[in-house]
Amino acid sequence: MSALLSIRHYHQDIVCHEHDHAQLVFGLSGHLQFEVAGLGSRVSRQTLVVVPAGARHACDSRNGSECLVFDVPTGDWLERHLGHHADASRRLLEAPQKVALSVNQSGLVNWLAASPINDPLMARQGAILLLASLNAQAHSQPGPGLPLSMLNAYIERHAAHPIQVADLAGLAGLSAARFHNRFLDETGLTPMAYVRDKRLRLGRQLLHNSRLSVGEIAARVGYTSQSAFTAALTRHFGETPKALRERQPRDK
Q1: Cβ neighbours of residue 234 under 8 Å, at least 6 residues apart?
Q2: For residue 252, is it within any domain?
Q3: What DSSP designation does 99 have?
């Protein structure tokens, strides 16, 4: 993994990849077109995009842009540096989303960008401050967030069967319409786009960790045909099931 904090310049060449660690991309100047797991957004000053670990993402900037990038270490880094606040940061990092920064948060980002972040101590303390600020912002927002852990568990248990927005809304105690709007606001994805992403990630995991045929895996994650599953998986991850199975898994 690269340095904890880094300044990156983007141009019109499209960058498309994924990595085992989560990433926070803070806009400094210009406009960066960004897509994470099907979520399209534009990163500019006072905005942030969350890239979860393992999420396929692509970006380009027609007129050039500059961003401060925080590559979040894997393992127990959050627990060691944030203590009991680590859970809030994990929730922030578990789904792709675009976040509007406050004036103070934007000031912190700009200050760090002008600081010697190649110094390990400066980078570590700056990264902790950024996460603490984002956690505080989440706590200050009215009302509790959606129960994403519960929703994720439900999706995994019922991946082989049809899942409706109303099913998920019932778990959250909301009407289907209200749940759809809340879900889109909190994750940047519609509920069904989120379900599709979870199904395909589970399919990729089964390709890596089982000897099931592609057809059997397709059925286990809710696809009625092997060809539909293969097409969806290839679009989402940029590789065929065969290539994904032959390649060593990237996130453990």
Answers
A1: 240, 241
A2: no
A3: E
